[in-house]
C-alpha cells in the first residue's frame, strides 16, 4: 500500500515537481542505463513521475512503460507526452519476463524498509534474462519523513548492494553523489546498475 501522505504530496505538486526535475531527463545515469539495453528494448519506468525519462527513452528508440502511484503524475505525463502512462503501485508488480530494463529512479525510497526485498524480487522476475536494473536511493540509516511529509527509507551503499545480490542481481556499477532535492536539502545518494543473473 503506498504511503498516503507521500502520494498526497505528489498529487498536489505534480507541475512543480516536473519543473524541478526537468533537467534530470537527460542525465548521465539515464544515458549509461540506456547504453546497456538492446536496441529498441522495453523498459519499465517504475515511479515515473511526470515521465520525462520515459519520453527521453522513447525519443531514443526504446519502448518505455511508465507507471506511478500518483494519478496526478500519470495525468500530467500523458498530457505532456501522450506516452501511455498508467497507475500502478509497487504491490501490483506482477510481470514475468517482460522487460529488458527497469528504471527505478528515486522511487523505491518511498516504501518501508521491510518491503524492499519483496519489491526487488518482483523487479527481478519482471526482467528478461540479463535484463538491466537501475535503482537510485538516498543514503542513510533511518526511515523518516522529510519537511514535505514524504516517507523516506534511507539505505547504506552496502545494504542496497546486499539486497540486490540476495535477489540474484549482479552489480555492474555504483555511483555516489550529492543532490539538492524537492525539499531543498543537499542529500547523499547512491545509484546502482545491476543485471539479472540468469
Could you explain how this protein is built, in words?
The chain is of the alpha/beta class and 198 residues long. It is built from seven helices and nine strands, in the order H-H-H-E-H-E-H-E-E-H-E-E-E-H-E-E. The chain has helices at 4-12, 14-20, 28-35, 52-59, 71-81, 116-126, 157-167; strands spanning 42-46, 63-68, 86-87, 99-105, 127-138, 143-145, 151-153, 169-180, 186-196. Strands 3-2-1-4-5-9-8 form a seven-stranded mixed β-sheet, sandwiched between helices. A two-stranded antiparallel ribbon has the order 6-7. The relative contact order is 0.16. The mean pLDDT is 89.
Topology, pairings included?
Blueprint: H1 4-12, H2 14-20, H3 28-35, E1 42-46, H4 52-59, E2 63-68, H5 71-81, E3 86-87, E4 99-105, H6 116-126, E5 127-138, E6 143-145, E7 151-153, H7 157-167, E8 169-180, E9 186-196
Parallel strand pairs: 1-2, 1-4, 2-3, 4-5
Antiparallel strand pairs: 5-9, 6-7, 8-9
Helix pairs in contact: 6-7
Q: How many helices in DSSP terms?
A: 7
Distance between the termini: 30 Å
Overall pLDDT score: 89
Which structural class do you get from the secondary structure elements?
Answer: alpha/beta
As residue ranges, the low-confidence spans are none
Major beta sheet summary: 7 strands, mixed
Spell out the helices and strands N to C: HHHEHEHEEHEEEHEE
Give the fraction of residues assigned to helices. Answer: 25-40%
Number of strands: 9
Shape: globular
Strand content: 25-35%
Give the C-alpha Rg: 15 Å
Strands side by side in the biggest sheet: 3-2-1-4-5-9-8
Amino acid at each position: 500500500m503506498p504511503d498516503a501522505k507521500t502520494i498526497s504530496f505528489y498529487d498536489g505538486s505534480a507541475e512543480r515537481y516536473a519543473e524541478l526535475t526537468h533537467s534530470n531527463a537527460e542525465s548521465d545515469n539515464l544515458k549509461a542505463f540506456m547504453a546497456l539495453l538492446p536496441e529498441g528494448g522495453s523498459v519499465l519506468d517504475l515511479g515515473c513521475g511526470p515521465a520525462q525519462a520515459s519520453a527521453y527513452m522513447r525519443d531514443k528508440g526504446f519502448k518505455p512503460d511508465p507507471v506511478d502511484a500518483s494519478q496526478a503524475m500519470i495525468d500530467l505525463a500523458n498530457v505532456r507526452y501522450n506516452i501511455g502512462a498508467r497507475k500502478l503501485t509497487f504491490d501490483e508488480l506482477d510481470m514475468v519476463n517482460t522487460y529488458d530494463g527497469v528504471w527505478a529512479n528515486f522511487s523505491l525510497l518511498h516504501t518501508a524498509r521491510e518491503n524492499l526485498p519483496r519489491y526487488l524480487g518482483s523487479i527481478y522476475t519482471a526482467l528478461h534474462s540479463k535484463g538491466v536494473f537501475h535503482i537510485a536511493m538516498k543514503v542513510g540509516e533511518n526511515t523518516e519523513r522529510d519537511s514535505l511529509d514524504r516517507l523516506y527509507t534511507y539505505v547504506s551503499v552496502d545494504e542496497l548492494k546486499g539486497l540486490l545480490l540476495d535477489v540474484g542481481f549482479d552489480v555492474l556499477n555504483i555511483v555516489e553523489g550529492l543532490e539538492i532535492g524537492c525539499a531543498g536539502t543537499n542529500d547523499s545518494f547512491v545509484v546502482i546498475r545491476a543485471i539479472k543473473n540468469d
